[in-house]
Amino acid sequence: MSALLRFFRSEFSEVAFAEVRAETRAEHIVRVLNQRGFEVVGMARERIQLCADLELLGNWLDGALTVSSVEDLCRLVDVEPNFFYCSSIGQRAFTDVRIESRAEDILRILGQRGLEVTDETRERVESCRDLDVLGVWLDRAVTVSRTAELFADGWALRLNRTA
Length: 163
Known about the structure:
Number of helices: 10
Oligomer: single chain
Largest sheet: none
Helix content: over 70%
Radius of gyration: 21 Å
Distance between the termini: 58 Å
Order of helices and strands: HHHHHHHHHH
């Protein structure tokens, strides 16, 4: 028997594959809930992501298709509802923190790469409120040779205007 075949038949690989299946199923649960309009945050998200029980995750996936409220979601994954996380105010606060964090990371990456960050660049990045545009800029910050290239081609500007 080859070493590769022995590995795939070993207890170690079974455990590793079970972990990957659990992580994948957890991602799918969150994805289904997001597609249904539920943003999974806080303890509910943590509980789903840390679960390694494939049967329980399967039950949660089934339930993700039928929950009709945040309270149902919390009952499904057996966590206490935290209404701040679930409220529109809480969601806006989390979005604002994500935006600020992404802008900070863009500027940090540019600085660590030794690229000049002008006041104009800093202002443009920090004033952007669109996570998708900031995501594009974050990806570009890793490879641009000048900070002006961050905003190149106008694509990001079109996104910003339609948001």
